[in-house]
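// run 5 | inverse folding | seed 20
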């Protein structure tokens, strides 16, 4: 039996995924939680075989959560996220995710990813597979910021909000927010102003 923890801050999404997974005889939903902090507690308590994790969470973000899970020798992680940009996918893999499924995918794909990852394999199809292949050909810069993140921190330095950054770059606002959070985490910044100061000091602007 494959024990799964679902992590998403929207109850309706968690309920929908649970209803899909519970139709499978070999899968059981061990816990359904709304934050990374709750997930870390549930992992210790439930000892799941796989975690279905959203990247955009309140408090601790999904990327940091994956890193924390690796520190405690956690089960395998499948990302289930609305972020469909290559950079978000690559960041998740760098952190330790074993699978990536974009929200809107059919239930059969979610089930296949969970089974594959719980068995010790990996599951990357379509855009996720292409993003990983591209990363292998062109690994990240030594400074740790991707080209897109450099664009974003430059716009942050100009005082633009996440919504304005999204409009300027032609991306979703949630994606802009994701990039800002990633930049702050990489630079060790507590806020946007500190991120700009640290980026300036490291000559990333």
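// decoded
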């Amino acid at each position: 039996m494959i024990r799964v923890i679902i992590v998403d801050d929207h109850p309706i999404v968690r309920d929908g995924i649970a209803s899909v997974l519970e139709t499978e005889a070999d899968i059981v939903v061990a816990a359904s939680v709304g934050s990374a902090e709750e997930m870390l507690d549930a992992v210790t308590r439930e000892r799941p075989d796989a975690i279905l994790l959203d990247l955009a969470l309140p408090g601790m973000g999904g990327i940091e959560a994956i890193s924390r899970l690796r520190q405690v020798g956690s089960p395998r992680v499948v990302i289930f996220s609305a972020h469909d940009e290559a950079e978000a996918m690559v960041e998740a893999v760098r952190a330790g995710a074993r699978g990536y499924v974009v929200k809107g995918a059919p239930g059969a794909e979610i089930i296949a990813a969970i089974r594959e990852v719980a068995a010790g394999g990996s599951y990357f199809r379509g855009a996720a597979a292409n993003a990983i292949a591209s990363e292998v050909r062109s690994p990240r810069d030594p400074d740790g910021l991707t080209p897109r993140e450099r664009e974003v921190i430059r716009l942050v330095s100009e005082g633009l909000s996440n919504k304005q950054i999204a409009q300027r770059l032609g991306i979703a606002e949630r994606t802009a927010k994701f990039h800002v959070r990633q930049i702050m985490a990489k630079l060790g910044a507590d806020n946007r102003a500190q991120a700009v100061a640290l980026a300036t000091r490291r000559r990333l602007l």
